[in-house]
Amino acid sequence: MNESQVITQAVACDWRRGYAFAADPLRLPDWASGLAKSTLTRVDDTHWTLAITWTITLFLVVITLLKGKFWTALLGIMIPFFVFVGAIRLARPRSVWSRWRYEARPKRMARAERRDARWHGRIDRIRIRTMDFIAGAPTKAPEIAAAEPSGDEPAAITSTPPESVVSRDGATS
Predict the structure, then answer these.
(1) Residue 166 DSSP symbol
(2) Across the chain, where does the E strand assignment appear?
(3) Is the dihedral angle over the CA atoms 45, 51, 57, 60 positive or is it negative?
(4) pLDDT of residue 75
(5) Could you give the CA distance from residue 168 to residue 128 in angstroms, rounded to a whole number?
(6) Residue 91 gets which letter from DSSP?
(7) Interhelix angle 80-88/70-78, nearest 10 degrees
(8) Contact 13, 22 (CB under 8 A)
(9) How far is it, in rounded angstroms, from Cα 13 to Cα 88?
(10) Long-range contact set of residues 22-28: C-beta below 8 Å, sequence gap at least 24
(11) CA distance 60 to 63
(12) What whole-number distance in Å separates Cα of residue 44 and Cα of residue 50?
């Protein structure tokens, strides 16, 4: 079995000059010949490739946002595969895209509404359960009975004022 070995070599130069030498990828074969068996070549067209990639990604993010898929667009900025999937799938029914594109296509709108009810109904239930677990479920208001209150219960508040109203100056009307 091959054993590893640490080799230390002191270099008498300013650290900034040594760092600049070691940080340059074209110099990797010069100082780490065991790590780089091939020569590195600089490709000058990488900035165009990057610009085109980001332009396409931004275009797909805008389409995904118009389709009402905000979390998919946010995730797609970091991982472009998700924004591609979000852009080719059906839009959410209340999105700008569905108003523009699905009004003349009732079958597609119906598919989008079914999918939204199925997927986002599940997600909403999970979201509400999570919020109830973290913050506590809200208390349900007791329903006010329409019947006359018994003697020990307070009277229900009604929107009609009593027959005689006393004004601030003490006069009754």
Answers:
(1) B
(2) none
(3) negative
(4) 92
(5) 47
(6) P
(7) 150
(8) no
(9) 57
(10) none
(11) 5
(12) 11
- Taking the C-alpha atoms of residue 36 and residue 28, their distance in angstroms, rounded to an integer, is 7
Contact (Cβ atoms closer than 8 angstroms) between residue 84 and residue 61: no
pLDDT of residue 22: 80
pTM across the whole model = 0.47
pLDDT along the chain (173 residues), means of 10: 74 84 78 60 71 91 92 91 90 86 85 82 85 84 56 58 59 60
Determine contact, residues 21/27, Cβ cutoff 8 Å: yes
How far, in Å, CA of 137 to CA of 115, rounded? Answer: 28
Check: CB of residue 109 under 8 Å from CB of residue 103: yes
Handedness of CA 43, 45, 47, 50 (dihedral sign): negative
Which structure tokens are listed for 3? 């054993």
Q: Supply 160's token pair.
A: 């009609």
